Amino acid sequence: MSRLKAVFWVEALIRRAESGLAAAYVIRRGDEDAGAVLVKVVQSRTDCVLYVPVRDELGERLWIRFRKGEADEPTVDAYCRERCDDDPDLWLVEIEDRQGRHFLTEPVEEL
């Protein structure tokens, strides 16, 4: 099964967010072909959620929340920095949306 290039997937996510009147930014560009993507959703100055990709038993991508409860933004940012330091191919996308929408089309496991 061929997978969509990361750069196209990120561009589509940003378009979905912007069409929903949210702001979306590429904070860090990764590998254009196969880089993994972290999606940070900022709802307010104190509320943010990080979505991390994982693969299910069939190899399909789904998303899980970083930490089960709410994580403060400094904790999320520290985790993102660690992941970016470990993986030079990693993308980081930030979405600012007062409603807290993530605009992901793949399944999201809300823990």
Overview of this structure, please?
This protein is of the alpha/beta class and 111 residues long. The protein has a single domain (6-109), classed as hypothetical protein tt1805. It contains two helices and six strands, in the order αββββαββ. It has helices at 6-19, 73-86; strands spanning 23-28, 37-42, 48-55, 61-65, 91-96, 108-109. Strands 1-5-2-3-4-6 form a six-stranded mixed beta sheet, sandwiched between helices.
Question: How many helices in DSSP terms?
Answer: 2
Please give the share of residues in helix. 25-40%
What portion of residues belong to β-strands?
A: 25-35%
CATH architectural designation? 3-Layer(aba) Sandwich
Widest sheet: strand order?
A: 1-5-2-3-4-6
What pattern of helices and strands is seen along the backbone? HEEEEHEE
- Rough shape? globular
Please identify which CATH superfamily we are dealing with.
Protein of unknown function (DUF1491)
CATH class assignment? Alpha Beta
Looking at how many chains there are and whether they match, the oligomeric state comes to single chain
Radius of gyration: 13 Å
Decide which structural class fits the backbone.
alpha/beta
Largest sheet: 6 strands, mixed
Query: Spans with pLDDT under 50 lasting ≥5 residues?
Result: none
Instruction: Kindly state the number of beta strands.
Output: 6
> How much is the average pLDDT?
90
Per the CATH scheme, the topology name is: hypothetical protein tt1805
Tally the structural domains: 1
Terminal CA distance reads: 29 Å
